[in-house]
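Batch job 17 of 40 flagged for manual review because the log was empty.
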Amino acid sequence: MDQGIKTRRAVRFGRPAEIVAAARDEQVDLIGMATHGRSGLKHLVGSVTEKVVRLATRPVLVTHFGRDKKPLLTQA
């Protein structure tokens, strides 16, 4: 059933400011990120994800990516 919703996906790697700038420049509605949360037990998200959440001017959806799982996309 077509709801008339258009979607587009883009994958970006980089520093938090670069990720936020790319989202701004490409006028995205939502930033989605996976995190390992390796910054310590007190942190639920990783340091890059935390900085993106703090810097972003649009919503950020964060999901936990376990240490025992292999990523679907890897940086070449």
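Reviewer: the log was empty due to a logging misconfiguration, but the result itself is present. The beta strands are 31-35, 60-64. Unflagging and moving on to job 18.
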